[in-house]
Amino acid sequence: MREYLLVLFCTAAVTYLLTGPVRKFAIAAGAMPPVRARDVHREPTPRLGGIAMFGGLCAGILVASQLDNLSKVFSQGTDIRALLSGAGIMWLLGVLDDKWGVDALVKLGGQMIAAGVMVWQGVTVITLPVPGVGPVAVSPTQGMVISVVLVVVMVNAVNFIDGLDGLAGGMVCIAAMAFFLYSYRLWYGYTITDAAPAVLFSVLLIGMCLGFLAHNMHPARIFMGDSGSMMLGLMLAVAAISITGRVDPDLITSELGSQTATVHALVPIYIPLLLPLTVIALPLADLLLAVVRRTWAGQSPFAADKRHLHHRLLQVGHSHSRAVLIMYFWAALIAFGTVAFSVTNTGRTVVLMLAGLCLVGLVVLLTPQFRPRAPRAVQAFVPPRYRRRRPRVGAGAVNAAAAVDAVEAPVAAGAELTADSAGRTVSELMAELSAADQRLLGGVAKGSSAITGRGHGNGRSRQGR
Length: 465
Description:
It is a single chain. The chain is mainly α. β1 and β2 form a beta hairpin. The protein has 21 helices and 2 strands. It has a two-stranded antiparallel ribbon with strand order 1-2.
């Protein structure tokens, strides 16, 4: 575990340190497109954050290759070389798209090429565990098709949710954490060496996401772009492929002593690719809904719009940070719930706990205006948005009060609006206020006129209407 923590720290540190220079390079290179109608951010923000993430990936692999236990992963298989090859192709494709833009079909072809390169180097599904039957061997062609489809689906699923600050990086980080717990248990709990590459890939993913999220949380200073999101999706797919179809259930049966216990322990792996799909359930659902929605409307499935799940949360009334946290909550609930169900023998307890958490999530989802306030004893340790604020009378409030007095008093008396006690005219006072305050004061003036009968008619005529 200490070696994994060292790899995670190095990956996160290199990613964090590289992101600042990469941001300056992106600005100088012009990789900062203007704000589009479907974008949520208001100011042009540089992309190419995937360059820093790829640097962190290379640094983490370099550190892992020098450690005693983790170096065995490099000598026992070709998964590391396949990962670097596929990630390099996907990263280069994303950089070109971030700078100049790439057609959707060309991008899809590049994703399939990257997946094909990894399959050619041995990262492919060999067997599919089927409940009641056991491992079912697939032909090389079938394994290649399944692997390529899984890579393309995961890459586009992660790319689709990259619409809010910190959303894609945080959700992939949560998925990688859940996958790490599951694969680590298979390796050290049941001494299955085929799960070792998946453990390392998960650690690298966590480090890359944590290092970049420090710069990408709202308000983001840089976006990962397609160079980052497609690479994250590919790595998550590689971690899934490297463990799916390579774990022999007979090894776990010998440890647990019964086939029933084995089936329960391997719930996520007996249903093909269940765990990898559950950890990205929300991005995958968003992807499928987008494809159906656009196809039904007669549009291309790759046409961009502003109707993703995170956009709908904003339309409901949630703030930017709140929408991201809600997506985090549901991703963690699904991913860790699946892992917990595969670990514990008390499935009923897990289901009840998940039902309770779902209820909490629904309450939060349906109450966008709810703003909890922390007790005064802990206000110094919570973000400012959760502190109890005392009303303060500042210069703006004084000006607003003076303007209200200058509007209401003369109207009530039927006099001309000329100047306040300080010698300033009402127009000068109004100019100092915001547009919302000016509209509010206009409504106050109309209401005063209606009450005193000094407006566009007298009070009797208004009462008779």
